[in-house]
Design goal:
By secondary structure, the chain is of the alpha+beta class. It has three domains: 136 residues, Toxin - Anthrax Protective Antigen,domain 1 (Toxin - Anthrax Protective Antigen, domain 1, Alpha-Beta Complex); 133 residues, Mannose-Binding Protein A, Chain A (Roll), CATH 3.10.100.10; 84 residues, Immunoglobulin-like. It contains four helices and 31 strands. The longest helix is centred in the N-terminal third of the chain and has 24 residues. The protein starts with a helix and ends with a helix.
Length: 427
């Protein structure tokens, strides 16, 4: 059993090293976030792709991801050498969305055979233009190709020299997401009832979201649309029928049913004929993530819920490796990676909840482990928002001597090294 665990551990470390090193080595291309589902959840890998021009056919896009039912988000910037109007072509099998300069230009989130779409935008020479692509593969063949055509550019895949990686967006369910327009943080939870969502939001230090303007509502819809078609927000008339308030503040923003009136100074975006209280218990509002419109819904129904936070929130990966077994006097290394932090990041490592002197970097190294070093390691991460989070625990086990790697284990290692070399050559 120990030999099998060791072999699996080596596999995980090598694959993680491969993906991490490739991403760090490249400064041109777009950042690709690869998910194990069709709805931008279960983030499996992050890497920089020099071009977004793929025809996987019936193969998996990366090790650890299935040949079907996956999704990818690419973010970054495209910077042209000459000013003028550029046409972007995107061919997809299956669903795709394309944003250029923060505007949604292609919205074809559906199953389809390879289909081409195009959009044109005016770009300035040397000025980075934000670009984002959401893609999902259902079943069958898988294709996603991005091309452009414009001044001095014949139609073709965008060369890496014109692309700069972005910061990514992260897992739509696991991560907090910062809206750059207002500095607020949002997270999707559930599905659950409105009351359960309210309670969990408060336990997280937040509240069910208050939507103050059309831009905020559209941003939320576009962000969480891959996960679901609707989500509860903080609007409700639970206390008094027909008096709609925001749960965060208790302020009234709407009076009456569909023919009612908004309170001056407040934003509303009810769907046609809503709110209608059709079942007498439709006392909570949900946001249609497909359109950005609102509808009242029975509070006992279960939906995803959008949580908003006024304070900074930190996402992170790790600690990695999660579990390690070492023999006496081996070196122990464990790393955390903050995702989309703001400003300078500070670290403090703990062993069994006791601060480690000098453990103030993203990577903690214990050069020669002893039995006393065995235990649980966590890291407190802080950025300039200020946001602070204590990570999950990484477990270290120390033994007198590790068992020798079996012939099977050595064969496994040799295969891994061959796969690693092949992938690097292909990249």
């Amino acid at each position: 059993m120990m030999r099998s665990i060791l072999c699996i551990g080596i596999l995980c470390c090598l694959l993680e090293y491969l993906l991490t090193e490739d991403a760090l080595a490249q400064t041109e291309g777009l950042l690709g976030e690869y998910y194990g589902t069709v709805n931008m959840t279960d983030l499996r890998a992050t890497r920089i792709d020099s071009q977004v021009f793929f025809n996987w056919e019936y193969a998996a896009p990366l090790p650890g991801i299935g040949v079907d039912y996956f999704s990818i988000c690419w973010t970054g910037f495209v910077t042209p050498a000459q000013s003028g109007t550029y046409t972007f072509y995107i061919t997809s099998d299956d669903g795709v969305r394309l944003w250029l300069d923060e505007a949604l230009m292609v919205n074809q989130w559906k199953g389809q055979a390879p289909t081409e779409y195009s959009a044109s935008v005016t770009l300035e020479a040397g000025q980075p233009c934000p670009i984002r692509i959401d893609y999902y593969e259902n079943t069958g063949g898988a294709v996603l190709k991005l091309e452009w055509e414009g001044p001095g550019q014949t139609r073709g895949a965008i060369a890496s020299e014109y692309l700069t990686p972005g910061a990514g967006i992260g897992d739509r369910l696991l991560y907090w997401h910062r809206n750059p327009a207002n500095g607020q943080y949002y997270k999707l939870i559930g599905p659950m009832t409105w009351a359960a969502g309210k309670a969990q939001a408060e336990a997280m230090g937040g509240y069910l979201t208050t939507i103050n303007n059309a831009a905020e509502g559209q941003w939320l819809a576009e962000l969480f649309r891959p996960v679901s078609d609707a989500a509860f927000i903080g609007a409700n008339d639970i206390a008094e029928e027909g008096t709609w308030v925001w749960d965060q503040t208790g302020e009234t923003f709407w009076n009456g049913l569909a023919d009612g009136t908004p309170v001056p100074g407040f934003y509303t975006n009810w769907n046609s004929g809503e709110p209608n209280d059709s079942s007498d218990d439709e006392d909570a509002a949900m946001l249609y993530l497909t359109s950005g419109l609102w509808n009242d819904l029975n509070v006992t129904r279960e939906r995803y819920c959008i949580v908003e936070s006024d304070i900074g929130q930190l996402n992170y990966d790790g600690p990695s490796p999660a579990r390690t077994t070492l023999q006496l006097e081996d070196a122990y290394e464990v790393t955390v990676t903050p995702r989309q932090p703001v400003g300078v990041v500070q670290y403090q490592w703990y062993k069994d909840n006791t601060p480690i002197s000098g453990g103030t970097l993203a990577k903690l190294i214990v050069f020669q482990v002893s039995y006393e070093d065995a235990g649980l390691y966590t890291c407190q991460i802080t950025d300039e928002t200020p946001a602070t989070v204590r990570t999950r625990a990484a477990e270290l086990t120390v033994v007198k001597k590790l068992p020798a790697l079996s012939v099977t284990g050595l064969a496994c290692l040799a295969t891994l090294l061959a796969v690693t070399a092949a992938m690097r050559k292909r990249a």
